[in-house]
Amino acid sequence: MLRSLDHVQLAIPSGAEDLLRAFYTGPLGMAEVPKPPALAVRGGCWFTAGAVQLHLGVDPDFHPAGKAHPAFVVDDLDVLAERLAAAGAPVRWSDEIPGVRRFHTEDPVGNRLELIAAH
């Protein structure tokens, strides 16, 4: 039976690792973790924050995930929205789910991300 989620992987274009490192370790505050050597040769990068793990894998036929997305629960949604906006990332608030404070953004290659306030 399913027990927990180990990680989410998003596709990225070849050569975008440094751009994405700046975004995920900058305004999102994640830490990069080394990929195992056998996987590192494929490119991409891995990040963590608390129990959250995000893997970015190079896809030669990359298309940004415009609908599919990970949703991250955050401690201070307003501070994160300010940090993302200051970094030039879009911040689109949504009130479509009653009682849930959230917004959507995109990483520098166009992958959609959802950020949700912790309850």
UniProtKB/TrEMBL annotation:
Top-rank taxon: Bacteria
Q: InterPro entries under this entry?
A: Glyas_Bleomycin-R_OHBP_Dase, Glyoxalase_6, VOC_core
- Pfam families, alphabetized: Glyoxalase_6
Q: Where is the VOC domain?
A: 4-118
What name does UniProt use for this protein? Glyoxalase
